[in-house]
Design goal:
Pemi-like Protein 1, Chain: D; 4-stranded mixed β-sheet; Methane Monooxygenase Hydroxylase, Chain G, domain 1; 3 domains; flat; 8 strands; Ribosomal Protein S8, Chain: A, domain 1; 308 residues
Length: 308
Amino acid sequence: MDMRRRIIKQGNNSYTLTLPINWIREEKLDQGGEVEVEQEDSHLAISIPKDLRRRESAITLEIKDYNERTVRNILNQAYRKGYDKIIINNPNEKQFEDIREITRNTLLGFEIIREEKNCVVQKIAEPTGENFDAILRKIFFYIADDSQEIMQEFQNKKYDLKKRVYNKNIVDNYTNLCRRLVIKERIGGSKNSYFMFEIVSRLSLIYHAYYYMYKYASEKKLSPSKETLKILSEANEMFGIFHEAFYSKDLDKAHKLGVIKDKLYQELYTLFGKIKGPENVMLYHIGEIIRLTHMQSTNIFGLIEFKS
């Protein structure tokens, strides 16, 4: 809610303004207490210091007879929005099992502390915004490392689906946590936090494209053709260029991703007409990897501060 405050001059070189009394009471502040003031262009953001204990935030959810996918979406969104306690009313026995697995696999720092009529999932410990960059780098590492391992396993015709499932759970944990931190601590500031959220979300989707391509090929015991392996290798290289462009904020490399995308799409269109059967499912997922990696380049343009 917008509230205007009048600036009051104090002495020769200082000015003060009043803070809303409701906010002061809610945050249990008093005379002599401290707040953080951040300046970004013409905006001032006043907040409670990060090292001070904050009030626990909680949300109560009704999950009716929803299936596992819907329950997972509900819990993930509550987690990302920054709630410290999630109370689920009247889950059935199957939903209890789903909540246990979802908490274990995607809600890093949370545990179930009560399983009675209502299920309570609560924050026990979690990294802070200071850990964001390290966790983001780990996500990049897992995608790059798994993409190379997947390529080798296709070439050697040996599959290790159990390892891919294990790594997927780690990446889901990390990407969920990063989105939570972006929202809670405005990682990137008011102008760039949207781009950071988008980048993490698309990294999650890129990993999922690799995973589901691999899972399908493993279950069908496919032996990908040389043409499919070639375009997969090129998609891996494309992701590597995005990785470099993101951390160097290199506009030339970001631009190059669009050129590569157009080239690889032409190759894909040709392969779709040439390769028949189940292998086309693999080509679909490779196309998703290419598309999502290219979309990431648009966020790089948003993160760069252009000179006026």
